[in-house]
Amino acid sequence: MKSLYGKTLLNDPVQNKSTAFTREEREHYGLQGLLPYGVTDIKKQQQRVLANLRNKSSNIEKYIYLNDLLERNQQLFYRTLVDHIGEIMPLVYTPTVGEACVKLSHIFRKPQGFYITPEDRGEIISRLKNWPETDVQIIVVTDGERILGLGDLGANGMGIPIGKISLYVACAGIYPDRCMPVMLDVGTGNQALREDPLYLGYPYPRLVGQDYLSLVDEFVEAVQHRYPDALIQFEDFSSRNAFTLLDRYAASVRCFNDDIQGTAAVTLAGIYASCRITHKSFADLKIMLLGTGSAATGVAELLLPAFKAAGLGEAEAHSRISFVDRRGLVTAAHELIKPRICPFVSEREAMSFVDAITAIQPDVLIGATGTAGAFNEAVIREMARCQERPVIIALSNPTSHTECTAEQAYRWSEGRVIFASGSPFAPVTFNKRTHYPAQGNNVYIYPGIGLGVMASRARLVVERMFLVAAEELANRVLSGEIERGSIYPDIARVRDISQGIAIKVCQVAWQDSLAGGNLPEDLEANVQALIYEPGY
Ligand SMILES: NC(=O)c1ccc[n+]([C@@H]2O[C@H](COP(=O)([O-])OP(=O)(O)OC[C@H]3O[C@@H](n4cnc5c(N)ncnc54)[C@H](O)[C@@H]3O)[C@@H](O)[C@H]2O)c1
Ligand SMILES: O=C(O)C[C@H](O)C(=O)O
Ligand SMILES: [Mg+2]
Asked: Active-site positions, per UniProt (predicted)?
């Protein structure tokens, strides 16, 4: 690391310790007079951060405060995030990051991450040289077209890769300088944004078709050139592009799509864990999905190998999964069924969502619609009529777009639902009993996948990695958590869980001959050696 002195040192977010510089360091680095007298350690600094944070009157102010802290003192930011993940994650991630993205061009303070626009065409390799880090291992990239359930937010979507990277660092312990948030700013279909005088993105309609694909191709190739070890995580692309890009690169580039694959694994883990509460066998379950986009399709496509591993044949596995869209149960009578949904089309007659629940009696209902209210009272009451302990996972983010609230789920099911949601809900007291909703979010999966891919230097990210990640996550739910109806572990343990997932991913990488180098004697130590512990 470069030796910095005086004000330059205090202005460097990586090396700055602010009031924690000792008297000796103050003398050595020319800091005398530049700091108040008091020397405080990181614990005291954290107290100050938390007091300031808790004093802010809105979540968006808290987001801005934390982001400023990251840009001022990286160690303190990450130490506080790691130590108080339950309190702070909702402020740097869903739901607050959604609000921050909506407003990003207005609350902008300091550039973060890396931007590519159509004007960089032909020059992306040389542009990447402007990024100061030489050992990037994890790239989270979005084009901003489907930011959470909020739609096309153009370059304002940069908040998502920045938030996801913060959680790579906090939840898997990846070194911050090995991570890179990227915005492929190819324009926006959001006219209000394009007309907003403060909008900071490329203020033109989106690139489409070959123009779009060739720019993404150039980006992916440039990454292979500049950062050959890097894993590319595609995040919050429109469903159409998400699948197109995954199909285009997954067989040759170290990449995955978090909304399709990470979400699928976290959902599968929740379903596995729910069996410990309901005492049903996974192989007997019927699962219904509302929505036919990236997340729901990804879940169905990962359920297939999971069912097969549980002993079901191909046709039987398909028959356990049903899709519902705005028109009701997806049957052959529907026009324009998406190609990936075709294998799951029901042979029943067309019927409404509620009638489909009555007819099929699903054990598990999953929502990935981005639409608040999509699980209405009739839907939840019917699930509760069909099942003693219905499992309902409302994946959509942010909270304002979740299919139903935790309170609604418990109330309409008379407290019998096993509920999880993409964004966190506080415990709910109903009929004098307190219920603990869990958070079913891909944050439980992608950091561990990334860490495992990094540790194994796997050439590709394959389906089995998501299957083992789901099993590992499900196994990490403690019996006490199961007893109180939670199907995901307390987020406070996520760092440890990510390491567990990483080890499983490494095993797959070596078993499938995808790993770089020889199998280390001690995989755990191999993973552990990569971990960043924030502090001075
Ligand atoms: N919890 C998580 O980890 C996680 C991960 C990925 C995505 N998500 C959330 O899931 C949501 C969907 O993401 P996606 O990538 O699948 O988006 P998408 O745009 O690809 O798919 C949304 C689908 O929902 C359908 N839909 C919308 N309203 C509906 C309604 N009322 N009834 C039936 N169908 C409806 C759309 O037609 C589309 O098929 C987003 O809100 C996103 O934040 C959560
Ligand atoms: O970002 C999240 O909170 C989860 C997921 O990737 C999403 O797109 O909603
Ligand atoms: Mg996402």
From this structure: 93, 164
The closest of 457, 488, 491, 456 to 472, measured between CA atoms, is 488
Please state, in angstroms and rounded to a whole number, the distance separating the CA atoms of residues 272 and 475.
9
* Mean pLDDT value across residues 139-168: 98
Q: Which CATH number fits domain 97-253: 3.20.20.70, 3.40.50.10380, 3.30.70.2740, 3.90.550.10?
A: 3.40.50.10380
The CATH superfamily of 259-536 is NAD(P)-binding Rossmann-like Domain (3.40.50.720)
Asked if residue 236 has its Cβ within 6 Å of ligand 2, the reply is: yes
pLDDT, tens only, 288-324: 999 999 999 999 999 999 999 999 999 999 999 999 9
pTM above 0.95, yes or no: yes
Kindly report the protein residue whose alpha carbon is nearest to atom 3 of ligand 2: 94
On average, the pLDDT of the chain sits at 97
For CA atoms 344, 387, 356, 292, the dihedral sign is negative
**Per-residue pLDDT at 1:** 78
Q: Give the HSE-up count for residue 370: Cα atoms under 13 Å, Cβ half-sphere.
A: 16
For the chain, which residues make up each domain, given as ranges?
6-90, 97-253, 259-536
The best mutation among 442, 488, 494 to test binding of ligand 2, ranked by most ligand atoms within 8 Å of the C-beta, falls on 442
